Amino acid sequence: MKKKLQEHTIQDALAFWQLLRRGQFRALLAEPTENTITQFFRYILTGASSFLVDFLLLFLLELAGVHYLPAAAVAFIVGISCNFLLTKYFAFKAVDPTVGPAAEIFVFCAISGVGLALTMGLMYLFTSKLHLYFMLSKLISSILVFFWNFLGRKIILYPGQTHKNA
Known about the structure:
The protein is mainly α. It is about 80% helix and about 0% strand. It is built from six helices and two strands; from the N terminus they run ααααβααβ. Strands 1-2 form a two-stranded antiparallel ribbon.
């Protein structure tokens, strides 16, 4: 099983680099794929877009006088809403979720809820205990939580069942 997973990952990496090297950006960005490396690449773009929404909203809310922890929670929720749409229709658009449509939102929110708890805990640790600037705390916590979010979505919600109509 472990060897099969390693072979699959190596094949995915080779296919991804071949598309990138040949400049086949439509295949990398627009066509449905089960390739985990391509999905991770798309999730980086998805995460970066969602992070910008989250980061800018946090900055604006704090500038408006909202304490950094509630501001971080609101910004995270808005960012994760953007992330849901981008994840479903961009990063993992070739695969069906493991659950029905209503449960998909619930599972996505549960994964995101863990991400929010991690974000809040890390922001508190970095800002209140280690005395880092809150925006630096946000950056560090976002990078760490990014990996939880990708793996949670890839393993739990979108493990690779192709669309029935594909």
